[in-house]
Amino acid sequence: MLDNVDPFIGTAATDLPQARGLAAAWWWPKPQVGNTHPGATSPLGMVSACAYSGAYPTGYGRYAKNTEGVPEEMFERLQASGFTHFQQSGTGAIRKYYNYVRVTPMVQPLDVLGEAWPLHDEVAEAGYYAAALDTGIRCELTVGAKVAVHRYTFPEHSSARVVVDLSCGGLAIELGRTVPVRAQVESMGHGRAQGTVVMEGVPLSVYLDVDSPGWRQMLWYDRRLIDGGTRLDFDSIRHTTLRPFGMLFMGPAAAGQTVEVRMGFSLRGCEQARRNLERECGLTRPAFDTVRSRTRARWGGLLDRVQVEGGTPARRTVLATALYHSLIKPCFADDESPFWPTSGPFAFDVCTMWDIYKTQLPLLAAIAPDRGADLLESLIRVCEEEGNFPIGYRMARGADRFFRQASALAHTALADAHALGWAGLDWNWALVHMVDDLRRLYGEDFFEHGVVYPITHTLDLAYAHHCTAQVARALNDRHLADDLEARGRQWSNAFDPGTGLLRDSEFYEGGKWNYSFRLLHDMAARIALVGGDTAFIDQLDRFFGFGAAPVARPGRRPRAAVMAAGYALNRFEGLNNEPDMEAPWAYHYAGRPDRTAQVVHAALTWQFGTGPGGLPGNDDSGGLSSWYVWASLGLFPVAGQNLFLINAPAFGRAVLRAGGNEFVIETSGHRETPIGVDGIDRDLPAQYVQSATFNGKPLEATHLSAATVHRGGLLHLRLGPEPSAWGRGIRPPSLSDPPATPEETR
Questions:
Q1: Which of 220, 257, 226, 192 is nearest to 114 (CA)?
Q2: Origin, by domain of life (predicted)?
Q3: Which of 137, 205, 244, 693 has a 20 to 30 A CA-CA distance from 627?
Q4: Is the whole-model pTM more than 0.90?
């Protein structure tokens, strides 16, 4: 999989072929851009490194801030004023941004620092990024978990230099700049320097070791050199008083001479940053190739935990890159928490939780369970220290918890982890925090009234009560479990019995149709509420646009009337947006997995492609890419329910290495289908599961428990061109079901 990864996918405005068939009826309200970056990353590591232009939202690229339609360009061409660290990955607007510690190789005077030069000959691989600046300098970047290594190849020049700007943060857009409030910089000679900047309440420290024999090193302030100075201290910085500052290494360069800049980072001071640098780079010089090789090996080890056979080159590239994007965030900085002094996992950049809890966290649980457990331990620690589980968590003191987006989402991952038998967590202590968190913010109103607005929080809280009840019951706290389960049944208060849809309310990035088909813990009662299978399927068919005419995507600067008309369609948003990403699998609960197959096939065929414009919308920290991985495997995790739903896969054979076990998905009758970028000129029909076996025994149900998948086994799916009776009888489990049979609980 490693050799198929293309980090440029999603870095530019969406450029997919015009969809045909079902996918042509879907409407896209959000920005048509993946918002990823091609920079060097380490799997779930603390540090990234990429060319910095100041564009939205990662600091890389050409685009201005936008919330709908085709993004507008800030610049006519790709450019960079240097290279920064700690980029976002695929998010939309999360209000604050990173891009700290800009490093700029130059052959111009310091006065022009901040000027951007065109980028040429970009190369990106997992763990590696390279480009040439218009100044003739070739720039290469690689990273480890807590380090970055830059290698610059200079043209001949009498006064080349590498400038490190510690005052730079955020983006070059309105309200996008981040300013340190305190800072300290120290030059120690012999190519060594260090500094700490306090950004958004977090002390970010860097230790530098620069391999530039014979060059001078100096501090600078306000683009003026401080000859002979060894230390700068800033006790109180404001937006109005900030002047750029940092360190500089300068000297003559022969043509082709390389300078290596090794950087260790820490949230616990310069001394720990130095230890991090020595741990990952060693004491030998140079270190670039060693760090690059180790990071590439780590990427290979993780990406190999999903393997597929067959598929067109384009489909394999999209899958490999989706898996890569799924494993960039969250950022883990073990033993680095700036908020509590003890050792242990610390995770930040847990955005966007309202998307990743459905797809990416279950993927981590499967292929990186050690990191999945570390994330949960980190979230529990946040709850201990700050009083609630975060909905999103940034590298910032008093981080915005994104509470408007959703409520109590960590409960789903905790419930799944307990059902999988993860023994490393103190589950009694975790249960204490799960219960306490249910009362916070919107939870208090839910506790008192059984309903809360925005109405989607009613669904969140009811579901979280159900998830918490499962943990409480497993821990033999029956009284608590019964009380929680009773409150969990109040999901029905969110629905209008007259329409079978959610009640009118405000909705975060969507409407009531987008949120009405979430996979609840009692889908049988949910379907009965609307009038039964037929009525529910009719609503889903309308939502997905079966039989509807094609609709146009919003263009650049779409008019208000265009957006209003699109929203009025009440249509599936086609993975351009994530609130309804699980809705295709709602058909399973009404006995129509064939409809799921049609919708997922259309999405995999037309909504993803190769090249920079290959994503239909924001990747949202890997939430969208994780959806693609699961859908390609023919599986979908129902977060919080210890459950996987089964669908026709996109590859003839696949292997999911969950922990130390192999879950194999084999097919017979599989037909290779190209994706839109392969140049197909017609909409090829979906394939449907005709029958299934698991470990050689017939499987009539359309689901397996997550515990079964994680234990490994062989799922064989016989596929065909027409819908079948498979899956129409046994439905996925619901809370109001009678006791399940052994077949259903397997």
A1: 220
A2: Bacteria
A3: 693
A4: yes
